[in-house]
What does this fold into?
Amino acid sequence: MREECGVVGILSTEGEDVSSHIYYALFSLQHRGQESAGIATFDGSRIRVHKDMGLVSEVFNGDKLKLLRGDRGIGHVRYSTTGPSTPENSQPLTISFRGGTIAVAHNGNIVNSTKLRRALEEDGHIFLSESDTEVIAHLLAKELLRKDIVDATRELMKRLIGAYSLTILINDTLVAIRDPNGFKPLCIGKVNGTHVVASESVAIDVLGGKLIRDVKPGELLIIEEEVESYQIVRSPSTSQCVFEFIYFARPDSIIDGKLVYDVRLRIGERLYEEYGIEGDLVCPVPDSGVTSAIGYSLASGIPFLEGLIKNRYVGRTFIMPHQRLRDAGVRLKLNVVRRNVEGKRIILVDDSIVRGTTSRRIVQMLRDAGAKEVHLMVGSPPIIAPCYFGIDMPTREELIAAHKSVEGIKTVIGADSVNYLSLEGLIEAVGIPERRLCLACLTSRYPVEVPGEICVRRQVRLTHF
Amino acid sequence: MREECGVVGILSTEGEDVSSHIYYALFSLQHRGQESAGIATFDGSRIRVHKDMGLVSEVFNGDKLKLLRGDRGIGHVRYSTTGPSTPENSQPLTISFRGGTIAVAHNGNIVNSTKLRRALEEDGHIFLSESDTEVIAHLLAKELLRKDIVDATRELMKRLIGAYSLTILINDTLVAIRDPNGFKPLCIGKVNGTHVVASESVAIDVLGGKLIRDVKPGELLIIEEEVESYQIVRSPSTSQCVFEFIYFARPDSIIDGKLVYDVRLRIGERLYEEYGIEGDLVCPVPDSGVTSAIGYSLASGIPFLEGLIKNRYVGRTFIMPHQRLRDAGVRLKLNVVRRNVEGKRIILVDDSIVRGTTSRRIVQMLRDAGAKEVHLMVGSPPIIAPCYFGIDMPTREELIAAHKSVEGIKTVIGADSVNYLSLEGLIEAVGIPERRLCLACLTSRYPVEVPGEICVRRQVRLTHF
Amino acid sequence: MREECGVVGILSTEGEDVSSHIYYALFSLQHRGQESAGIATFDGSRIRVHKDMGLVSEVFNGDKLKLLRGDRGIGHVRYSTTGPSTPENSQPLTISFRGGTIAVAHNGNIVNSTKLRRALEEDGHIFLSESDTEVIAHLLAKELLRKDIVDATRELMKRLIGAYSLTILINDTLVAIRDPNGFKPLCIGKVNGTHVVASESVAIDVLGGKLIRDVKPGELLIIEEEVESYQIVRSPSTSQCVFEFIYFARPDSIIDGKLVYDVRLRIGERLYEEYGIEGDLVCPVPDSGVTSAIGYSLASGIPFLEGLIKNRYVGRTFIMPHQRLRDAGVRLKLNVVRRNVEGKRIILVDDSIVRGTTSRRIVQMLRDAGAKEVHLMVGSPPIIAPCYFGIDMPTREELIAAHKSVEGIKTVIGADSVNYLSLEGLIEAVGIPERRLCLACLTSRYPVEVPGEICVRRQVRLTHF
Amino acid sequence: MREECGVVGILSTEGEDVSSHIYYALFSLQHRGQESAGIATFDGSRIRVHKDMGLVSEVFNGDKLKLLRGDRGIGHVRYSTTGPSTPENSQPLTISFRGGTIAVAHNGNIVNSTKLRRALEEDGHIFLSESDTEVIAHLLAKELLRKDIVDATRELMKRLIGAYSLTILINDTLVAIRDPNGFKPLCIGKVNGTHVVASESVAIDVLGGKLIRDVKPGELLIIEEEVESYQIVRSPSTSQCVFEFIYFARPDSIIDGKLVYDVRLRIGERLYEEYGIEGDLVCPVPDSGVTSAIGYSLASGIPFLEGLIKNRYVGRTFIMPHQRLRDAGVRLKLNVVRRNVEGKRIILVDDSIVRGTTSRRIVQMLRDAGAKEVHLMVGSPPIIAPCYFGIDMPTREELIAAHKSVEGIKTVIGADSVNYLSLEGLIEAVGIPERRLCLACLTSRYPVEVPGEICVRRQVRLTHF
It folds into this structure.
């Protein structure tokens, strides 16, 4: 599973160039996308863009940042899921039209993008890429010909179904938009005289700034000297992605008022409360299981101890050269600290189980090292359904929990027990009411209409102001 | 501080090509050197080499490994400290001479290299590089003209002063040598029919093999179908690098019989025993302080909790573009989890203090986030003297503890207290007798003669068998 | 002066993959653009594209060509003149719209592109780039919604003013279009069962094929099993670029029925006929002056001899490091064969004079080498006006002949005489009637309306069939 | 056939940095080696080197040249023939020894290198590469321990058999050495206060300097404020490579007093004198046949006309993707100007025939284009034996003339006649007495002892002064 994107929007009220700020902010969001990176700034007369394949530190250097003049701009990191990953698909996406130029950075996925695209094509629109972001840009541009930014955004939100946290330059105006469901996080902060909008609060932290608040679902921010807020859509229920808390976001981020670290700690605590399984040590699957393992340890009093060490140099380009050594795969990433696990009853804590293959290999490694018992504590309920809102996830067929009972999964993985956090436990750990969460991958009930899937909130009428 | 090198030597008794094994092993030793990587194999008739600047995963690919035919070979990863880092300085170093061809992979530093080199030059020897490894190769080659491998190694050991864990191909013969002081680690293991010698046992683990034992200080191994051992030098005292345990080695490695993880845990426990400082949480400086922090937590009962999160994408090429943002430096690598530290008394655990600048910034970040108290627990005694045995360390002038009292350091760093582990505590935590450890950087008393430094064991006569 | 682009379109009637053919063809057109290269093929169900910055041999390799499946496709090489040269601006440009997908390769420049673009924007069109090619694609797509290819092309031609030799994939249909003025060359040939359309006939030669004929100005070709021709616009006068003959095209190309080599020979002959200047040798400025120099030699009987040798390794990345050596500039590219010129009266033949700086330096080099007289014979009349039709040329201010008399130019250049070919001589050498040539850069009278310039054929009404 | 290397040595008597001069000089010698490039300078205290794989313009940039401080230095371009081409084999080669540091740039090949190397190895010498240049460096260093530069060079020359034009830095002393046979060219010139030694005089020209004279076979130059000359070996006969005149050297170079351009012109004239073949045009195989074709035209009165055009972008990386198109090979490089050759009797002039395959394809192309007759005039006698002195040439088996009569070659190539220049004709054209030329590849009689070959001058005793 991978997050697909991170976005940033920055404006200096003191006329300072912001490309370096955006660069730092993107760097702190690198975990949200490692495939391409880009920055667009408005330099006083026109929008400048630089984007390319690669990590933020590879795509940019001092010279390139210097060329990106301007006191306002947006940035994007991307991990693409569909189609060939090419420089052309990297963002920000820029378009020019009668009303000027628009640059868009998008995190999320538009569910009805094909339909919207077809309608726009019927209307004569022409597209240069396959991306749903180009559809957003076209819709927005079209509306901006007749309406001001607020009304155009209202029209845009009427049309789009799905996830979209956006930072946009409309000529010289920086705006931020979060979809009415609030699928993907977006927050705003301030660093001295500089406004910062970003996918996660760590992007504000890295600049030495202060998180002010989350952008609300359905909200439009127009960021000038002051930040104007427009609650375009007000909805009784939202659907914030629960997996941001479980896995995607950095633990030091605060999302929708909740510190991710806290949530993960509570997940660990809840796992102990729900199952009460005892053991000799609580051992995380690094890095994603660490915080919940600490929580389990705190709740249970069982010592937290690392039984698995991660190789910090596992990167994008690693090859598996030797047929007979291919099962070295997991060992290259993880190594067992034998003496920590030998003869021990292990409480193994991981954030989730997707296909089950990695879990199976880890359990095997622990057993090979002499673990007496391995109890796998999973920081989420079973993942039984795919995500359509911007997470790169295997198909339903590949999701082990879509086809197997917990007992069956236990057999496959070879653990002494496999213990999923309950849905209630998860919701409580997150601390956000169920009606404000997207739990689709755990319930197979979707918060918006997705062709071929059950929509749980079909009846909900969004109110457009 | 950086480790300078890692070495590997592998021989398959079943005639299998070993380049992939070496590649995996080097990958697991990547933390010992990220600047260049290389592999040399004996293909049945000659030695083949590929080496270049870059990470293991960048230097090699499937095609290159396939060309490195042969059932025996050596490998090297390197971080260079002196002079320009160039492809020519990468290892294995190969030389040809009357007796054939030699390929050498070296971890360590020869203290009397300049003197030896001058003597060899007097003798007519000609060098192509500045490296002490070329000196080793020349000495060895010279002796091999008149002696067999065992006697030649004996002569070599008589001449070399300093640190050298070596894996060497002498034509078709794979040998491993560890200096009589045993400065740098070296161990041997087996994976089915394959012998593996490596700087750390993780290189054996990654291949799914079993650690057999450490190569002994002063020992020569000739690795064939069977491994022949020759204790070339027997010495009443050795000087194994204590910082391998404190910082350099991977926690999952077993060095000289001691699991590094255990040592680091005990360091944390000892720190609590020695100072008994209480607080609201034990917070590690990631990643190197994590294990000792767990130890402190276990000993004290104070909860282990992460107050600092590390950005996993901090790499080699990052630039600091904006003058005013340059102090973002530490924030790019580390971010505070504010709610974990706000209003709290923090037990902050780090492995060591070198210059003190990073510690000062981290303490400041914690204070800015509202920490009530910050007590810095340091997993080693003060570093007061430079290393001459293969560690890249600042000069004596730059070492904060070489010039300041603990009280002075506390003032500079701004912590409520700075608490260094005692030398006795460290020795006890490591579990190896003091006379077998190199503690020079902590005591300024060197185990071998180094010009301008005090030598504590000058009188010790190595016995050459 | 640089040509901006070359285009190719290939269809195999035997179902063979054509990406390799396109690759070879582009390679033979590399002189028309060295900045980026691209290929698009229709693979039976969709259009595939690969394009990037670099030479044809750098952008493509065997793997990439293999991925470009399909029995029909187009290719493009590009030298960009305006704006930053980026991967996104490389061609073929692909768009998708209600009618499917279009890929366009364009050689030329649309004079009224800004106006058309504005009109399209008024109409709601949205653009992703600044290029006139995107305007062409939009116009074409728009018309294709209501009309078939022939009628859509007719509408397109009604709107576009300027130069456009196009190869286009409209879904699975390969078409070729040449503007009614015929500014840029375009020809069609056949290689066994494969149709080839290309900017120059050398692209057909390289495939071992046969040139059939030029695409006529105003003609549309729909290339299927058979090639259908539609004379969309019939015009009494055309304006084929005369500089293709003088300088841009390869000498072995046949353009509009004329072998470029022949034209250049005749230019040399005419220069002798017009001026009758005698000397000891005829010396070309390599490479562009060679053929005309041979012509001069043949006509005059004066021996052809190389007095200047060109360094074949002058490339894109050369740097001029040393202030004092910077005047080595011309010497790096050209060296005098002293003994061939010493004490001699040199007939120096070049294709044209743009700024005059290179000519001045060459004359100086010849004089320094002891040339007694240097008579510069120029294969074109004075260039006095800029090109708006796809050639990268200095501004009017920089053109030496726009401001100086021939006498003045002679003084600047330092030659004993400077002898421009007469306009009549040039026209006769080309062998195409004046009313069919674009001579704008030589006469400052433009064949189509260009804002701020004199249009000589304003009255001409194009007839659209 | 490819030349293997070019060398440069430059010293500024005015204390100016010379790295830029060397860079320019190497650039003008790029035709002598395109695989790697390097520069070494003496900066006042030590020798600095930068070298890497690639063209001169790729290996160096402004920053790198700036780092290469010093008023004296050497440079090298290389095309390697044996073994893998690696950065380590690039030159200048530097060694350090008791006497200091030596940097060597070598053009040529040492015939007895293996024997010398073995002797040195017997003597305890150790080598890091396979190159004969390292052998030269060792021998020189060894002698310098006991002797001054002049006497050491004398000893060196006594030992080396083969070709060696050398530029060397011995600590701060720049020297140039040409072997007693004078196989490879070497000349000296002056640019203001700067001494320049180089493989060809074009390297002096590019700097705006004046060729003074050739370095004599057997001469040592010590280049300081003044240039000291030592005729170390005086030999009644030398053996300058005749193929430098026929093919390798740039036409604008003056080698051993002969302008290469003149020689090639005379070769063309001689070919007409020897065979008197008439035709409709004289057509060169570009680029190497051009000058001789002009000579043939001047002698015969038959017009010089290009029937073949070369693609200027044929480079190192070109791939041949399509099986069926592979015979496009020659067409990619050369294209026929059909109208120039159709129905014509072609006098086709090439410099030499090696394997015959390219000639065969060119003749076929001309015939396909309708040539009535093709008479191939070859600017050298048949190549019947390999070169051991620094030219990359096919084995004897692959040389068509080693196995076939002229009649047989004619049949293979398919020309109406194949006409080789006579040996006498060649010698006369070059203008150097036979006893001063190496004609081994044309006669199979070698000027020095080569194992397995006939040595024609075995009896000649070199006189060492």
User: Anything to note?
Assistant: Chain A has two domains: 2-239, 260-312+321-433. The first helix of chain A runs from residue 19 to 28. The longest strand of chain A covers residues 5-12. Chain A is about 30% helix and 25% strand.
